[in-house]
Specification:
alpha+beta; 12-stranded antiparallel β-barrel; globular
Length: about 150
């Protein structure tokens, strides 16, 4: 039972990280970006090369230009495909990013949305973060893989 609970917690963490990935994929085009929580406090940074950092600027990982997501130790922890499919490190589908900014889990339940203005909302439409000047289709990875918001 405890093992199942841990796995479900990990999956939930991954699904939340999904909301932020797209921001990482465009970071090389847009330059460094700041990720803010619902109170506008800085919780992370995305460097122009796709490196993901926490609010203290410690390196958390990186999103490569091909959509491969790596942790701080350079191990592959996930993949974001061009069609919006999000896969874990074992290449199992764990979510999907729709073109309109809707983020869905592996069962296609809506778990969040990224508005065009950069506002990030959870599945209950509560504001949980902000990413100015970041295309909505790129915003999910920070939640899905790095849990910044």
């Amino acid at each position: 039972m405890e093992k199942m609970k841990t796995y479900q917690s990990f999956r939930h963490f991954c699904l939340l990280c999904l909301l932020m990935l797209p921001m990482l994929l465009v970071s090389s085009v847009c330059g460094a970006q700041t990720v803010r929580n619902s109170n506008y406090s800085t919780v992370g940074h995305i460097d122009s090369d796709g490196t993901v950092r926490d609010g203290n600027y410690s390196r958390l990982g990186k999103i490569d230009s091909d959509g491969t997501v790596r942790n701080a130790n350079y191990s592959t922890i996930g993949h974001i495909e061009k069609d919006g499919t999000v896969r874990d490190g074992s290449y199992r589908t764990i979510g999907h990013i729709e073109k309109d900014g809707t983020v869905r889990d592996g069962n296609y339940r809506t778990i969040g949305h990224v508005e065009r203005d950069g506002t990030v909302r959870d599945g209950n439409y509560r504001t949980i973060g902000h990413m100015k000047d970041v295309p909505s289709t790129y915003a999910a990875a920070l939640f899905f893989f790095f849990g910044l918001l």
